[in-house]
Amino acid sequence: xxxxxxxxxxxxxxxxxxxxxxxxxxxxxxxxxxxxxxxxxxxxxxxxxxxxxxxxxxxxxxxxxxxxxxxxxxxxxxxxxxxxxxxxxxxxxxxxxxxxxxxx
Length: 104
Fold this sequence. Notes:
104 residues; mainly alpha; 2 domains; 0% strand
């Protein structure tokens, strides 16, 4: 069915005086709308479920990386960070801002 055929059918529907076409349209419209909106909701639910699954995976991954001891409480990590930052100050100026924000 081409676009011209569809326009011709629509024009005939507009000029139809019997009302059968309008009645059929009125009876099928709720079904078609319900079917279309159900499809949208199913797609939306799948997307939300996928996002929640990805969030759970990220949280579990981050939680597994923490371990028994945190590097925040470890005095050796602070010493290593300050050593790295002092070495970075001599080589790259862009790293100075990162190291100064870590020291604050």
